[in-house]
Write a structure and sequence with these properties.
single chain, 308 residues, alpha/beta, D-Maltodextrin-Binding Protein, domain 2, 2 domains, six-stranded mixed beta sheet, four-stranded mixed beta sheet
């Protein structure tokens, strides 16, 4: 059964919103665009994109912020029927394209993984000085007993997968056997796994010491973070072959990392296809890219479009 209008909420930013279900499509407001987007984009969508759409186009953005892989499965199952889907990495978008729910998807932005930490953690000074003379490297700090590390569910969220890939790449890059196991424990570690919006909230509140995150997440909240080498941060397409040297088998399927590019697609059956196409064109144009930069996203760096 599809979600009711009241049940479909802004997952990351707390505002009440909803996507249409079959019985609601006929009543859709002409000036409303419904967007399903990767949960890490909550601050951008709510604080930057939605006001710009309202001001410049008289268009109201409603949406759901959630792990992109989970959204892709919901779109394929018909549980939700947004006008636009925005995914991080090509994997979730490829699922939607192969299932015949969209014709093509365009790269609109990119990012990288960073190590965010709480300003309230007793380890804040150690993280701030990591790698400098006389200080432990960041991965040694994470190995300290009792460190509270946060991440998302790799079964439903690409970010959860990407954290695992990043740590595997770090283990190889620094030549530290067993680093992944010591820092992350098992792949599904319920002591570390939280819904995507909750990870940053826990860092703010001091309930977590650190988390790998996409750069815009801590930057938007003025949380401190460390940048990581491009050969492990998944943010540079020049290192794509290096990224692909690691893999993970989950639920009988082998996953490999890909550069952290955001893709946007108009979905078949959209009740507002004209506005959906205009929205994606705006994201790719200078005005939209300026908003993305203000929220600490990088440009798409020439990533090609994806097609069914």
């Amino acid at each position: 059964m599809g979600l009711t209008r009241r049940q479909f909420l802004w997952g990351a930013v707390g505002g009440l919103s909803a996507f249409s279900v079959p019985g609601f499509v006929r009543a859709r407001e002409r000036g409303v665009l419904q967007v399903a987007y990767a949960g890490s984009m909550g601050a951008l969508m709510h604080g930057g994109v939605a006001p710009a759409m309202a001001r410049d186009f008289g268009l109201r953005i409603e949406g759901r912020a959630q792990g992109a892989l989970g959204l892709a499965h919901m779109i394929i199952a018909g549980t939700i029927r947004p006008d636009v889907f925005i995914s991080i990495t090509r994997g979730p978008m490829d699922l939607v394209l192969r299932a015949g729910h969209a014709q093509e998807a365009f790269a609109v932005a990119s990012t990288e993984l960073v190590l965010a930490y709480s300003p309230r953690t007793p380890l804040a000074a150690a993280f701030a000085g990591a790698g400098r003379g006389g200080h432990k490297p960041w991965w040694r700090v994470l190995e300290e007993p009792g460190v509270r590390f946060g991440r998302t569910d790799p079964l439903t969220d690409p970010q959860g997968l990407n954290v695992l890939f990043m740590m595997d790449l770090a283990e190889r890059y620094y030549g530290v056997p067993g680093l992944v196991r010591r820092v992350l424990g098992p792949v599904i570690n319920n002591r570390q796994i939280f819904p995507e919006p909750e990870v940053m909230a826990r860092l703010q509140g001091g309930q977590l010491d650190a988390s790998a995150a996409y750069k815009p997440q801590p930057a938007a909240l003025s949380l401190p973070y460390l940048t990581l080498p491009p050969s492990i941060n998944l943010g540079d397409a020049a290192y794509e072959k290096t990224y692909e040297t690691v893999s993970l088998r989950l639920q009988g399927r082998v996953h490999r990392p890909s550069p952290l590019v955001f893709y946007a697609a108009v979905l078949h059956g959209s009740g507002n296809a004209v506005a959906a196409r205009r929205f994606i064109a705006w994201l790719r144009a200078p005005a939209g890219q300026a908003v993305l930069r203000r929220y600490h996203y990088d440009g798409p760096k020439g990533a090609p479009a994806l097609r069914a």
